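Postdoc handover notes: sequence design on the structure in folder B. Input tokens:
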């Protein structure tokens, strides 16, 4: 199984807090740096679970970009895409099993359709991050990538990513993309009525709903929920609901989104 993801490859800064932040004062935390971004996370979990993976993203030609590209290479993930001016950074604050994120996408949204190489999308599945549909020109690049992938007989999947992204423009782009599979929380699903697709609805600790059936979440000791949906998507695309739920359980039991 070869999965190509399109979206963000960023520097992920994860801060685990033992107690809530105190405004204007110091709070002790444990910090971890690594590659991140939804597309990168799905690609890394794909490789971890035995698939072949490539992420297509516009990454800065800077120390952060060099760092994240090296990390993905060590994880067996190919990186395709042009060089940009600045690598984005996501800061994730993890506390009591929940997380709050501050995102700077850097050059990733600047990916243009004419910067794509058709052969990058020779795959079984093209997985598009919903963040790629939120801005241009990357939204146009996602549409072009889907054309390339379908030319190779690939399935196209979409993760809606965040309900707050789903405005009228996002809806129009999602419908035009016509994904074969859409991953969404219940709120994201409800924000995009009329999308004709195979819905995979994520319900956190309550598991998932797909094809008219409910699947319970796998048992897990929750440390950090960052990236659980990305791990699930990789597992689902490779091996179906059971593998997806097992990958999500592995993800939440550790700090950080990467395997």
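Designed sequence:
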């Amino acid at each position: 199984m070869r999965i190509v993801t399109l979206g963000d490859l960023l520097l992920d800064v994860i801060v685990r807090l033992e107690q809530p932040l105190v405004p204007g004062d110091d709070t002790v935390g444990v910090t971890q740096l690594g590659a991140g971004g939804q597309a990168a996370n799905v690609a890394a979990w794909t490789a971890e679970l035995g698939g072949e993976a490539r992420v297509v993203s516009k990454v800065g030609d800077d120390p952060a970009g060099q760092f994240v590209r090296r990390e993905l290479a060590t994880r067996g993930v190919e990186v395709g895409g042009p060089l940009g001016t600045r690598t984005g950074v996501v800061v994730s604050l993890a506390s009591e099993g929940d997380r709050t994120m501050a995102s700077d996408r850097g050059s990733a949204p600047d990916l243009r359709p004419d910067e794509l190489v058709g052969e990058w999308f020779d795959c079984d599945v093209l997985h598009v991050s919903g963040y790629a549909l939120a801005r241009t020109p990357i939204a146009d690049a996602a549409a072009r990538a889907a054309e390339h992938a379908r030319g190779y007989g690939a399935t196209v999947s979409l993760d809606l990513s965040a309900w707050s992204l789903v405005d009228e423009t996002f809806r129009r782009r999602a419908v035009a993309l016509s994904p074969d599979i859409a991953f969404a929380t219940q709120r994201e699903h409800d924000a995009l009525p009329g999308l004709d697709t195979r819905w995979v609805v994520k319900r956190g600790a309550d598991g998932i709903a797909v094809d008219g059936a409910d699947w319970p979440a796998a048992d897990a000791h929750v440390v950090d929920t960052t990236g659980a949906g990305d791990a699930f998507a990789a597992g689902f695309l490779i091996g179906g609901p059971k593998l997806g739920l097992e990958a999500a359980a592995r993800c939440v039991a550790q700090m950080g989104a990467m395997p």
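Context for whoever picks this up: The chain has a mean pLDDT of 92. Don't rerun without checking with the PI first.
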